[in-house]
């Protein structure tokens, strides 16, 4: 089965969050399970530089949205790990360095509607009768997030351009429903859809054009990245306006938990750590902790529990709760090391916190892949108090690094962390800590429970070792996706 995996980021070439990790790890896992998978990425400078052996395929694309006059080419090359990847070489749309969605001023690029309509159109062009790549025609198009949301719409609404004997199946994966690609109504003038599509039963969404909504409406199958989140997004609280449509399509919606690429995230063979360690030999973890305390200007004290945060700093991530609970955590003997970047008020809050608690709180504002690994290894606890979390990957990395996740019970966090209740500790099931309501009171209570358990090193070690042996590899999810692709293909037939 041939799968075109349409995504706007992919580690290590371009990454703003977990989508990049999934785009890097799921395609090779699918390939190992027997699928023929190729990525389609926007031709950002980092993509054109990072793909090897790039060469044009097929004819230039004459009618790409947002490209009046010019006819960009599709290039084909290889990811560093050998996965084949197409890049849409449209410099006027994608030839901008830095963040893929925002300019240096922190605002969304004003032409994002055209940029990602072009990506989706190019994906659809692979299915046109003449084909875009004469040597490779996909059986299924797997679109990710709003950036690829128009892919299913183009296949369904433009059979004149993309129709062929056998329409490929389409799958849309929602990685985060909070980001929807919502654009003004006059976007319709630019994106080559029939004007009849501007309707509730179509791409219209709250008085504009919704790219994620379009995908949710037209895709053969919908997935999201954890079973709990697939239920949550059908509710008023978490559906962000799409709950009605998703409830209607519930029979086509499933939750498949993300996996971890243990080739990248394994403390036994992670080149970014000062010392390796494993569940059998935890010695190196102490070395990692001391090095981390040094790097963050914290007191070098083995006995102080060290909590870490590695996150985008946004309201959804619930880190304002950490800001408020940190005083008591430090007073109880704890330390805190934070790596993150995001909303200015939250960045400022963490800087302030570090200034108030020298030696106990260290903060690095910025994005640093190497440091994120060293935090996972050197910390005792990883805090993920998200208000919503479709899946969350950092808690899965923490488990593998024997760093106990302390999470709010929502989305994928609820599906992957087993709270250290007395019963769960006794029967050896516990892997971390979790709390219910997003309140300072609840997170503080949870932190106190963690502190108490930390004073029992034998118990803590046993939980950490158990956490490290949990398997969240990509093999099982890859099999689920393959099954889903078959279902999408059958739907399209
Ligand atoms: P989300 O995609 O919502 O940001 P995930 O937990 O799925 O959340 O994925 C976050 C990814 O981004 C992880 O790989 C995490 O290590 C990484 N990450 C987040 N912030 C930073 C940062 N400041 N520096 C380095 N890596 C980061
Ligand atoms: C999104 C979600 C995160 C998820 C990631 C990968 O960014 O916020 O929870 O892990 O996508 O699916």
Mind explaining what this structure looks like?
The chain has 493 residues and is of the alpha/beta class. It is 37% helix and 18% strand. The chain has helices at residues 18-32, 45-50, 91-94, 112-125, 150-157, 159-162, 211-218, 227-232, 243-248, 283-295, 319-331, 344-356, 369-378, 394-400, 411-416, 422-426, 440-454, 457-469, 475-492, and strands spanning 2-6, 36-42, 52-57, 73-78, 84-89, 140-144, 169-174, 182-183, 204-205, 208-210, 221-224, 253-255, 306-313, 335-342, 361-365, 381-384, 404-408, 433-435. The strands form 3 sheets. Strands 3-4-5-2-1-6-7-11-12 form a 9-stranded mixed β-sheet, sandwiched between helices. Strands 15-14-13-16-17-18 form a 6-stranded parallel β-sheet, sandwiched between helices. It has a 3-stranded antiparallel β-sheet with strand order 8-10-9. Strand 13, helix 11 (319-331) and strand 14 (335-342) form a beta-alpha-beta unit. Helix 4 packs across helix 5 (150-157) and helix 11 (319-331) packs across helix 17. The longest helix is centred in the last third of the chain and has 18 residues, at 475-492.
């Amino acid at each position: 089965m041939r799968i075109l995996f349409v995504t706007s980021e992919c580690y290590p070439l371009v990454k703003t969050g977990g989508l990049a990790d999934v785009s890097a790890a799921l395609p090779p896992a699918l390939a190992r399970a027997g699928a023929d998978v190729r990525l389609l990425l926007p031709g950002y400078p980092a993509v054109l530089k990072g793909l090897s052996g790039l060469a044009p395929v097929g004819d230039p694309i004459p009618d790409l949205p947002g490209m009046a006059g010019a006819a960009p080419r599709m290039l084909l090359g290889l990811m560093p790990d050998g996965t084949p990847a197409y890049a849409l070489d449209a410099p006027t749309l994608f030839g901008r360095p830095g963040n893929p969605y925002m300019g240096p001023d922190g605002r969304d690029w004003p032409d994002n509607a055209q940029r990602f309509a072009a990506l989706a159109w190019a994906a659809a062009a692979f299915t046109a009768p003449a084909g875009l790549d004469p040597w490779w025609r996909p059986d299924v198009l797997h679109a990710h997030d709003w950036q690829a949301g128009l892919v299913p719409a183009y296949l369904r609404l433009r059979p004149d351009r993309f129709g062929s004997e056998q329409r490929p199946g389409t799958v849309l994966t929602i990685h985060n429903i909070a980001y929807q690609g919502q654009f003004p109504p006059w976007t319709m003038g630019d994106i080559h859809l029939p004007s009849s599509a501007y309707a509730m039963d179509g791409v219209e969404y709250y008085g504009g054009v919704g790219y994620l909504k379009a995908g949710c409406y037209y895709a053969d199958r919908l997935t999201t990245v954890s079973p709990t989140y697939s239920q949550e997004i059908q509710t008023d609280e978490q559906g962000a306006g799409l709950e009605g449509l998703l409830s209607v399509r519930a029979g086509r919606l499933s939750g498949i938990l993300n996996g971890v690429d243990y080739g990248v995230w394994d403390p036994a063979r992670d080149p970014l750590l000062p010392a390796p360690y494993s569940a059998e030999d935890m010695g190196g973890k102490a070395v990692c902790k001391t090095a981390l305390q040094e790097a963050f200007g914290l007191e070098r004290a083995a006995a102080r529990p060290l909590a870490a945060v590695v996150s985008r700093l946004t309201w959804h991530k619930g880190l304002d709760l950490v800001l408020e609970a940190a005083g008591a955590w430090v007073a109880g003997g704890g330390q805190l090391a934070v790596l993150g970047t995001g909303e200015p008020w939250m960045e400022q809050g963490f800087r302030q916190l570090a200034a108030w608690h020298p030696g106990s709180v260290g903060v690095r504002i910025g994005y640093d892949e190497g440091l994120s690994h060293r935090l996972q290894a050197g910390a005792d606890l990883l805090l993920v108090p998200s208000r919503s979390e479709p899946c969350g990957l950092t808690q899965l990395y923490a488990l593998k690094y024997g760093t106990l996740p302390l999470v709010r019970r929502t989305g994928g966090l609820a599906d992957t962390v087993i709270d250290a209740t007395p019963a769960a500790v006794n029967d050896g099931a516990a892997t971390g800590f979790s709390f219910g309501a997003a309140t300072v009171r609840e997170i503080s209570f949870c932190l106190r429970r963690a502190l108490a358990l930390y004073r029992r090193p034998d118990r803590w070690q046993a939980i950490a070792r158990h956490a490290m042996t949990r398997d969240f590899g990509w093999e099982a999810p890859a099999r689920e996706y393959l099954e889903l692709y078959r279902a999408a293909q059958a739907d399209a037939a």
